[in-house]
Amino acid sequence: MTNNKLTTSWGAPVGDNQNSITAGGRGPTLIQDVHLLEKLAHFNRERVPERVVHAKGAGAHGYFEVTNDVSNYTKASLFSKVGKRTPLFVRFSTVAGELGSADTVRDPRGFSIKFYTEEGNYDIVGNNTPVFFIRDAIKFPDFIHTQKRDPQTHLKNPTAVWDFWSLSPESLHQVSILMSDRGIPATLRHMHGFGSHTFKWTNAEGDGVWIKYHFKTEQGIKNLSPDVAAQIAGENPDYHTEDLFNAIEKGDFPAWKLYVQIMPLEDADTYRFDPFDVTKVWSQKDYPLIEVGRMVLNRNPENYFAEVEQATFSPGTLVPGVDVSPDKMLQGRLFAYHDAHRYRVGANHQALPINRARNEVKNYQRDGQMRFDGNGGKSVYYEPNSFGGPTESPEDKQAAYPVTGVAESVAYDHHDHYTQAGDLYRLMTEEQRAHLVANIVGAMKPVTKEEIKLRQIGHFYKADPEYGTRVAEGLGLSVPEEVK
């Protein structure tokens, strides 16, 4: 038998390429997973110099104003009192395309916000969808490779896309959203935004809750049909960028209401879906939306490169009162995003004007390429020291949570990838279902291997028999008997 073992870049065999090593089933992810770190670090360096993902984007300045008192849940200063305003910068983007790609393609939209608070910057780095295709960061480079260009033809490869999705059934929920009418927003102003991951809020007393962020557009949801989107892509590939700029320029300031879902910490152990699995949502019947505030975009960039292109975001850019969860996808992003920025923009990307905190930064980081400030001057450059340098503040540590288990590569306990995707399908009107099926059929027809089509049809059928049957009929195939 031919040895076809997957190996690391240094030739060692890889024992598990599907699950990162965590401390117990819920993590957190361990830095000892050298395969994960090598995989992510190499992936971040695959393109020069544009972003590996989210290359095409548009941005704007604005503010966030608190409209509801949530200080019982978090001590974060930007949420501290009704009426408080915090300046911010937002970048919207498509995920898979290059810098010159069209705005109106079917793709998730990045929805990233940098809040300039008095306690440092806080980034919410999400999408216009509440879930994602995968739930472990170790699979992210492979997933994005399928969205990029084939190494031989240099063309997009539908066979690779659907092969990966059909072999990763956790993607079904997000695929169903992407292929629905919401897969192509009419403008960047007419879509919702989500933090997607579960985060932890901690109040001044040290009490915590799990939360999810929802930004609801005040402009209403509007989408484009595939035909109109294709026409616009040919006539004006920068349509979304232009629309956002022109709306702000004429004073039609787009706005979103921020809501959170709040889950008591103890519910995480009993909820019917793992609340840290980013391929799942929390039912709003179980955890209703609670209003927090309002985001308004009211100023365009003066220079696209300096502000939009050099803006760097990371879910690891946190402030006191906001902590992370054991979400395996989030845990990987905490490393990968900052690492990508160090590679793409430079070790001192945080010091650039668009990324610089509005409060004074005090640390012992020195030197690096393009250090353009005072580099700490002659101040003490190590810690601990006897010369009055800045010291740690224990009250600002991230909140603790218990960890148990064996350090190993572990999958999520829950493997129901079908209920929520089926619920989404059943919530749709007949017109929306017809659009969804037509979009899927059109996207899957170029797939060259029938086995892949049948495997994916099986996933649709398990979500809802009608869903799978209609896709199969559209492709001129039958639902596999073993699925029925």
TrEMBL record:
<dbReference type="InterPro" id="IPR018028">
    <property type="entry name" value="Catalase"/>
</dbReference>
<feature type="domain" description="Catalase core">
    <location>
        <begin position="7"/>
        <end position="391"/>
    </location>
</feature>
<dbReference type="Pfam" id="PF06628">
    <property type="entry name" value="Catalase-rel"/>
</dbReference>
<dbReference type="InterPro" id="IPR011614">
    <property type="entry name" value="Catalase_core"/>
</dbReference>
<feature type="compositionally biased region" description="Polar residues">
    <location>
        <begin position="1"/>
        <end position="22"/>
    </location>
</feature>
<comment type="similarity">
    <text>Belongs to the catalase family.</text>
</comment>
<dbReference type="GO" id="GO:0004096">
    <property type="term" value="F:catalase activity"/>
</dbReference>
<dbReference type="InterPro" id="IPR020835">
    <property type="entry name" value="Catalase_sf"/>
</dbReference>
<dbReference type="InterPro" id="IPR024708">
    <property type="entry name" value="Catalase_AS"/>
</dbReference>
<dbReference type="InterPro" id="IPR040333">
    <property type="entry name" value="Catalase_3"/>
</dbReference>
<keyword id="KW-0349">Heme</keyword>
<dbReference type="InterPro" id="IPR002226">
    <property type="entry name" value="Catalase_haem_BS"/>
</dbReference>
<keyword id="KW-0376">Hydrogen peroxide</keyword>
<keyword id="KW-0560">Oxidoreductase</keyword>
<dbReference type="InterPro" id="IPR010582">
    <property type="entry name" value="Catalase_immune_responsive"/>
</dbReference>
<keyword id="KW-0479">Metal-binding</keyword>
<feature type="region of interest" description="Disordered">
    <location>
        <begin position="1"/>
        <end position="25"/>
    </location>
</feature>
<protein>
    <recommendedName>
        <fullName>Catalase</fullName>
        <ecNumber>1.11.1.6</ecNumber>
    </recommendedName>
</protein>
<keyword id="KW-0575">Peroxidase</keyword>
<dbReference type="InterPro" id="IPR024711">
    <property type="entry name" value="Catalase_clade1/3"/>
</dbReference>
<keyword id="KW-0408">Iron</keyword>
<dbReference type="Pfam" id="PF00199">
    <property type="entry name" value="Catalase"/>
</dbReference>
